[in-house]
Design a protein that fits this description.
Distance between the termini: 54 Å
Number of strands: 39
Strand order of the largest sheet: 32-33-35-34-36-37-38-39
Shape: globular
Number of helices: 15
CATH class of one domain: Alpha Beta
CATH topology of one domain: Rossmann fold
Radius of gyration: 25 Å
CATH superfamily of one domain: Alpha/Beta hydrolase fold, catalytic domain
């Protein structure tokens, strides 16, 4: 049930993930004077822009969108780039990722003819073919036309073993809030008087044909301060949702409450999860009588259940049963024995200074461990036996490339999907039986000419002496003259790792034109496990910014580029990173792209899902403001300073990171006559775009802006 257990965690973790990336900063750097900090009570002249859908506010948005369009999108070069990126996004030759339900393999697909997408299925025999025949289950574009809506697909849960009744989530315009509707695959129709969850942040989980768990907005007082569900209920078919039985009620200050059913044959169990904050959760086993038994495991330990096994990932050193286990380890125990009080754990992975666990994939009888060694993947296979666990190499795993592994059907087989990708290497998808050579099923087409490109890894030295890895992609004949237009990307938060991956848009929009592309693996991320993340939390946020600045300085010192030719980009938590680079290190950069960002760190916890990130940043309404104000770009901005040209992008429909952050920062910089542009997509949610055309347009805006500024 690892897939179900982590649904709750990821629903909370979804609180700041994005298609972009970033991190945060705190103390001023060496030889710099601290920026003057305004009093927390200072009036905010631009707070009116926080009214997301107000007529005056949207008029303000449209006026700035028009200026950005005129400045960036009017040229034939822009139109060509946008068309090329859209062609890549719409390509029928992309790999259609699938997941197995019963005998069918399902996929969600978007292209030019289906901008909102098709939920479709095929057989494995058909999927093996170069051009599989697909059977459409639900056409979202047709649904929108029939219902005069702007639905965006948010996924489906189907009830085993038949997998014909499904709970489908649909979002208006791509927001996190969505509705759940019951669908019958056999009849290709919505179930009359079936389950329906009104629009809200939350979700559902099948128990059986006539019962589901539901966690959502049940009315006043039923959401956490983060805007997520505070109550989970059991809802019986044929009764109103208001009559559903309360299963668990959390506190308003908790982040996300959910309940889930593990439908593994022979191991059926019900669980309740209370995500108090990121990487801080409680897990309860729910008995047949409704009684909840909390798993006796520290809240900071990540928990998973698969068949008879309980998996545990301590974030810090943990002493239990008379033994101490290293933070970042992967431990397993027999679930029933643990619940009975036994404390026997087996160590399947222990990190070193250079390694961390990227993932553990359970099959029917094995565990595939995916380990990052200096941000490069290594696979191994472990299997339980009467004499304990045995370890072997993963047959056919490549020595080079970013490797992803996922179970095909963890209840029925030992087969896994294996993807391999790299910055210049198109992604391949293989089907692998444990112990046998993988069979390559699909290969992504080559979307750009990388024949003259090379990929390197270097390490920069941060202010405190920490070695910070970064990847760089450049032409083989690159001149070390400091004049190469270079794009540096980063995230550095929430223990999210940035590993190499193939992107036709980056290749076509940047590399093929001769640009240099760099990705910084700064602290706050997960490249070296929990310790790398913890190193940049709260009052240590400045470590992430110092790391990113160190990478920039290393690129300049190597004469790869220079400040006037060095641009940076990041979104969400990465938008906060960009905001701090802009305000604290403006002399290092020639252009900055800030996407769906956090910027006003005094107000962030009061805007949308902001309260859910206080474990990462701190609480600005307490003494934490003393350090938070040192990485709040909105407050660090100084109208007397010179800043590099900046482009802000966001989405009106982003109900995770409030568009007010970008709006207000734009207004403040604009009032100071800075070189700044702004573009707000009306749809798109936190990803910034709701379909491929919008994605292509937003991507082309960013790359055009950067290319224009860095080639002056």
């Amino acid at each position: 049930m690892s897939k179900l257990l982590h649904a709750a965690q990821l629903a909370g973790a979804a609180a700041l993930l994005t298609v972009c990336a970033g991190q945060a900063v705190a103390a001023p750097t060496q030889n710099k004077e601290p920026a003057a900090m305004p009093a927390a009570t200072d009036a905010d002249a631009y707070q009116w822009l926080e009214d997301v859908g107000g007529d005056r506010q949207l008029a303000w948005v449209r006026e700035r969108n028009a200026k950005s369009e005129a400045a960036l999108a009017a040229t034939p070069e822009f139109k060509q780039l946008e068309a090329e990126i859209l062609s890549i996004l719409d390509s029928d030759a992309k790999i259609p990722g699938v997941y197995k339900q019963g005998e069918w393999y399902y996929n969600f697909w978007q292209d030019k003819a289906n901008p909102r997408g098709l939920w479709r299925r095929t057989t494995l025999a058909e999927y093996r073919k170069a051009s599989p025949k697909w059977e459409t289950v639900l056409d979202v574009d047709a649904l929108n036309k029939a219902e005069n809506e702007n639905w965006v697909w948010h996924g489906a849960q189907c009830l085993r073993p038949a997998y014909t009744r499904c709970l489908i989530a649909l979002s208006r315009g791509g927001a996190d809030a969505d509705v759940t509707r019951e669908f019958d695959i056999d009849t290709r129709s919505w179930v009359k008087d079936g389950y329906f969850r009104p629009e809200a942040k939350g979700g559902v989980s099948w128990i059986d044909q006539d019962n589901i768990f539901v966690f959502t907005d049940f009315g006043e007082g039923t959401l956490t301060t983060s805007g997520y569900p505070r109550i989970a209920k059991l809802w019986k078919r044929g009764t109103p949702m208001s009559a559903a039985e309360v299963v668990y009620e959390g506190k308003p200050t908790d982040m996300y409450i959910s309940a889930m059913h593990d439908d593994t044959p022979g191991y059926e169990r019900d669980f309740v999860s209370n995500t108090i904050a990121f990487y801080n959760n409680e897990l309860f086993l729910r008995g047949k009588d409704g009684k909840l038994t909390k798993l006796d495991v520290p809240n900071s330990v990540e928990k998973g259940v698969h068949r008879q096994w309980l998996s545990l990932e301590p974030r810090e050193d943990w002493t239990v049963g008379g033994k101490t286990y290293k933070g970042g380890s992967y431990l397993v125990a027999n679930f029933d024995d643990w619940m009975a009080g036994k404390r026997e754990l087996t160590v399947l992975f222990e990190p070193s200074d250079h390694t961390s666990l990227a993932g553990a994939t359970w099959t029917k009888s094995h565990v595939v461990l995916n380990v990052l060694e200096d941000v490069k993947n290594k696979l191994s296979v472990l299997a339980p036996g009467k004499d304990g666990w045995t370890r072997s190499a993963f047959v056919g795993a490549p020595a080079i490339g970013t490797i992803g592994v996922g179970a095909v059907d963890s209840d029925e087989s030992d087969a896994v999907w294996m993807t391999v990708t790299g910055y210049t290497t198109p992604t391949t998808l293989s089907l692998a039986e444990i112990g046998q050579q993988p069979q390559v099923l699909k290969t992504m087409p080559t979307f750009f000419d990388a024949s003259n490109d090379v990929v390197e890894q270097h390490f920069a030295t941060s202010k405190d002496g920490t070695k910070v890895p970064y990847f760089i992609v450049h032409r083989k004949d690159m001149q070390l003259d400091g004049k190469n237009p270079t794009l540096l990307y980063g995230y550095g938060g929430f223990e999210i790792s940035l590993t190499p991956g193939y992107s036709g848009a980056i290749g076509k929009g940047w590399l093929e034109k001769g640009g240099v592309y760099v990705v910084a693996n700064i602290r706050g991320g997960g490249e070296y496990g929990p310790r790398w993340h913890r190193a940049a939390l709260k009052e240590n946020r400045h470590k992430a910014y110092e790391d990113f600045a160190a990478v920039a300085e290393d690129l300049i010192a190597r004469k790869i580029t220079s400040p006037k030719h060095l641009g940076i980009q990041g979104g969400s938590n990465g938008g906060l990173l960009m905001g701090n680079m802009l305000t604290q290190y403006p002399e290092l950069f020639g252009a900055v792209v800030v996407q769906v960002p956090l910027l006003d760190m005094k107000r962030y916890s009061h805007l949308l899902a902001g309260a859910s990130w206080m474990a990462e940043y701190g609480d600005p309404d307490t003494a934490d403001w003393t350090f938070i104000q040192t990485f709040s770009p909105y407050h660090l901005f100084d109208p007397a300073k010179t800043y590099p040209p900046t482009l802000f992008t966001t989405s009106t429909r982003d109900d995770r990171v409030h568009p007010g952050h970008a709006r207000k920062m734009m207004a403040k910089m604009e009032a100071a006559n800075k070189d700044v542009l702004y573009y707000e997509n009306i749809e798109g949610g936190h990803g910034g775009a709701a379909n491929n055309a919008q994605r292509a347009h937003m991507t082309a805006l960013a790359y055009t802006f950067l290319w224009n500024e860095l080639n002056k």
